[in-house]
Amino acid sequence: MPIEQRQTASKEKPVGLMSREFHLVKPKVQGSDRQFFTEQLALLLETGTSLHAALGVMQTQTRNPALREMLEHIAVDVSEGNTFGQALQRYPEVFSSTYVNLISASEKGGFMPEVLAQLQAMEEKRDEMRTMIISSFSYPVFLIFFSVAVVIFILVSVFPRFETMFMSIHDQLPTSTVVLLAMSQILRKYYILILIGLIGGAIALRIWRRTPAGAEIADQAVLRIPGVKDVVVRMYLVNSMRALGMSLSHGVSVTDALAACRDIVPNRVFQRFFREIEESVEAGGGLAAGFNRGEFIPDIARQMVQTGEESGHLPQVMKRIADYYERELSRRLITLSKVVEPLMLVVMGVVVGYLVSALIFPIFKLANAA
What we know:
Layout: H1 3-11, H2 17-25, H3 31-46, H4 51-61, H5 65-79, H6 84-89, H7 97-109, H8 112-167, H9 175-189, H10 191-210, H11 212-222, H12 228-249, H13 254-264, H14 268-282, H15 287-292, H16 299-311, H17 314-369
Helix pairs in contact: 3-4, 3-8, 4-5, 7-8, 8-9, 8-12, 8-17, 9-17, 12-13, 12-17, 13-14, 16-17
């Protein structure tokens, strides 16, 4: 189907309830599908298969109907005379600006298999870093939820059994027991309102987070939290520097590479930072001057960018910065997990000890009174 007919058909799709329900359950092209696309296409092109034939082969190999449909449309676009980069540009939710720019540059230079292999390697490194971050924070998060669950269980199930007994010595109860008894009564009497409030608050927070003002405040807060700031800054530096280095080494213009970095980094502060560098470069300034204005950019990164710009080896320096901060991020995450895990265990011990003491002391008083 020609491109114009497909665009017209997409505009004429019904917007009623049935159409919305269909899109809610329709399969999407995921990150794993993009990796499959990149790896398989690189392999097929390296063996001498033409681009159009490679797209046809991948259509028969994928089980995701959304990916199959996308491959079919890309093949049609290419057969109609559009470049491969232009075909990929129609799917910004799947292919980032960096991906499209690199493919377009490689298509002109005739080295697409090499660029696809490098894009696949970059995807794998990004996935490894994401897995490393999730594994570092999963155990502390589990301990927090487990502690909250234990406290709620004791307040709802254990304290009510002693409530009648404790009322006989109400004037002699310690403050901790009185507070926990009150919390137990509130949880049992108003649990529906509490659940509604928590769900409503979570929904309201999510909606607020999607507003420009809410997103700006949240992104700024992330860069101010001690400990978290260092991890987030280094993660963004790794992703953006690797994309910049790869883009510049393959002939992508500096302004296009900087603009593409705004798609890679999901933080408005960083996005504004790259926009300011882009404007500075367009005005005749250099990358180093822009990086020096970034308050959250580490000094060593500023110095390395300046050295790379002065020596004319900026792409290689960008890759070295990414590799350096990837190793440093790994060390920081290991250190952070070693510190947080015992700290959380101590907090859990204090909470459990507080709950147990609030139960044991009144029981001792009752035993002495008897």
